[in-house]
What we know:
Mean pLDDT: 87
Number of domains: 1
Strand content: under 5%
Helix content: over 70%
Radius of gyration: 38 Å
Low-confidence stretches: none
Largest sheet: none
Shape: rod-shaped
Distance between the termini: 59 Å
Amino acid sequence: MATKTARGAAKTATEAFEQVTAASNDAVRENFDRGLAALSEASSFGKQNVDAWLASATAAQKGLEAISARTVAFQKQALENHMTAAKSLMTSKSVQEFVEKQNAYAKSSFEAYVAELTGVSELVAGLAKETMQPINERVNAVGQLIQTNAR
């Protein structure tokens, strides 16, 4: 009878040990899976951040190229206009005609400069908006992630 009781106790202890072991294994597996999911999510989030920075840099590069091309074209046109005006001034027959031509050239040059400055300002504003858009989206994503995890 003592043997039966000992066997029963051993069996009960073995079953309890197996239950605890199974529960521990399940808990470890569940936490490991959660950890992998969190790591995967963090990796994906980091990749999206890098992609946003690359998109921002690409937009900045394209915008700066456009501004540079426009500036070069304006300078070329301004130089051509200056040469034309200089030739025209050289053909003046009187001081009055010289002053009139010089005033007309100064006025047209100033108007062209103001128009170009306005156009470049619009390009710069658009460039800033396009460059910051991907970064702003990632900042918003971080804010949403913080709000989601705070709940």
